TrEMBL record:
The chain crosses the membrane at residues 28-49, 69-89, 110-129, 135-154, 175-196. It comes from the Bacteria. This is Yip1 family protein. Keywords: Membrane, Transmembrane, Transmembrane helix. It is a multi-pass membrane protein. It comes from Biformimicrobium ophioploci. Pfam families: Yip1. It is found in: Membrane. Residues 9-185 form the Yip1 domain.
């Protein structure tokens, strides 16, 4: 499987693309490295440019971050994204047997991580909105991307995991819950890092 393969298909014809992803039988490492490190750069680089070059409003004040501060936060965000997607895939794998997914462990891990990689793809791709770091614009666009990600999840699990729709619905609902928990953990981790000295530093 090549770099960023299936990325377009997951938007244009998700049913057929999930079936192609299932048939790939790629390794988890190759799948992860040819997608997540590249896609994760979109929101990170966009955020860096947005907060250092264009700035954002804090109350009645327009602020920008210093390049050094923005770089530190961008690196931490990038690392958190990579770790988050991988852990998400591991949780999907951990829950698979509970919902009766069959197959050998290598195939099951690949399918679980493929699900994690491709359902988070819409959120990565809309990361370009970070070039215009307005809170409400970013929130609305990210919410729309998250909705499509959830649609992909419910659409993809019965195909990728080859289980009936009733079990797939319960499985997908559990995966959504795990995703929300991971999001909360990332938010809490961000606050902790701020308290440890990585808080934003604004230009004069």
């Amino acid at each position: 499987m090549g770099i960023l393969s299936h990325t377009v298909g997951i938007f244009t014809h998700p049913d057929r693309e999930w079936q192609k992803i299932r048939e790939d039988h790629d390794s988890v490492g190759h799948l992860f490295l040819t997608h997540v490190p590249i896609l994760a750069l979109i929101p990170v680089v966009s955020f860096y440019i947005g907060v250092t070059q264009f700035g954002f409003d804090v109350g009645d004040t327009h602020r920008k971050l210093t390049p050094g501060s923005a770089l530190s936060l961008s690196i931490l965000t990038y690392a958190a994204i990579l770790a988050g997607v991988y852990i998400f895939g591991e949780f999907i794998h951990w829950m698979a047997r509970t919902y009766g997914v069959e197959g050998d462990e290598d195939t099951l891990r690949y399918e679980s991580h493929a699900l994690a990689v491709f359902v988070t793809t819409p959120i990565f791709l809309v990361g370009f909105v970070g070039l215009y770091p307005d809170l409400w614009v970013n929130a609305v666009v990210t919410l729309l991307a998250a909705c499509y990600s959830i649609y992909l999840l419910y659409e993809g699990i019965p195909i990728l995991m080859n289980i009936d729709k009733e079990r797939a619905f319960m499985y997908a609902s559990s995966v959504v819950t795990i995703g929300l928990v991971l999001l909360v953990i990332v938010r809490i981790g961000t606050v902790i890092l701020w308290l440890l000295g990585f808080q934003p530093i604004y230009t004069d």
